[in-house]
Write the structure tokens for this entry.
Amino acid sequence: MKKKLTIKAADFKKVYTQLKKLESKGDIFKINGLSLSGFLIASATFDDHDDTPEIRTKRIILQIAGNSSVKPENLPDHIKLGLNLLYGDNEYSLLQMRLNALVKTYNTKESVSDNETSDCVTVGDCTVLVNSKINPS
């Protein structure tokens, strides 16, 4: 019997934070080589790894916004996050975690900070941020 668990972004962040604290205390379970917190982020939503980083970034934004009707490739770069898609700190927190996980799939030495994410005003700002982390100059 399958069950679907629905949690709010704030609760997701709490679970993730607690897992990270537990992991910092020592070696714990791994799932296919991923830490539990990494597995949580990776399996939280659908992501097509064959897509470009730009499309994957846009898909993450749409998923957090709860918008499944718009295709990521049709999401314009000029759309403002705070006015149209993400309305609270918890959503930006989740965006930071998801963008960080995305960047790490391409470049394990780079990361996305809370400040960098909160500096993103538009969808295009997010794609530029991700690309700058994947291909640092």
Q: What stands out?
A: Residues 48-137 form a domain with the Non-ribosomal Peptide Synthetase Peptidyl Carrier Protein; Chain A fold (CATH 1.10.1200.10). DSSP finds seven helices and two strands in the chain. The mean pLDDT is 84. Residues 89-106 form the longest helix (18 residues).
